[in-house]
Amino acid sequence: MPILTRSEICRLLPHGEGMCLLDDVQWWDESDIVCTTNSHLNKAHPLRHRDTLESICGIEYAAQAMGIHIALTAFKHEQTSLLGLLGGLRDVTMNVSRLDVCTKLLNIQATCVMNTGANFMYTFHITTEEISVLSGRASIFVQRPKDQA
After folding, report:
1. E strands, the chain, where?
2. pLDDT per residue as tens digits for the range 5-58
């Protein structure tokens, strides 16, 4: 049973329903989050280009998992608009060329390895039952909009 449903995730991310790519949060604690989704199989996926969903789009799946984790841990479900920026990627490994060829549920795991309150570093790993799909490290920078600072 998921801890957070898609509708609850949509309230924590600024993307809106159409761009919310994760179906649920299966588990989280102060350093880790595990999410799942089948949205990569959706023919109307917002990141599809020329009827394909490239592997690089997995970065957005990981970024959304990190954003949810930051909202749950660092900002304790604050209902304020936070601006999260992907600052950099390192050690990214893509083991498939397209996400839409993965026919099984995607598991997205992110682990916070640094948290300064406004700057975060995560490792992330996307898998299916059979394979490792994508992994790497990401830096996330969070700021409040000027009218809320």
Report:
1. 4-5, 24-28, 32-37, 83-94, 106-115, 119-127, 132-143
2. 999 998 888 877 889 999 999 999 999 999 999 999 999 999 999 999 999 999
Query: What value does the mean pLDDT of the chain take?
Result: 90
Tens-digit pLDDT profile for residues 45-58: 999 999 999 999 99
What's 78's DSSP letter?
A: -
End-to-end CA distance of the chain: 37
pTM: 0.91
Return d(Cα 122, Cα 31) in angstroms, integer: 9
Instruction: Provide the CATH number for the domain around residue 44.
Output: 3.10.129.10
Structure-token pair, residue 33: 């989050």
User: Would you say how long the chain is, in residues?
Assistant: 149
Q: How far apart are CA 18 and CA 49, in angstroms?
A: 16
Q: Could you give the number of structural domains in the chain?
A: 1
| Domain extent at residue 57 | 4-148
The dihedral through the CA atoms of 108, 99, 82, 142 has a sign that is: positive
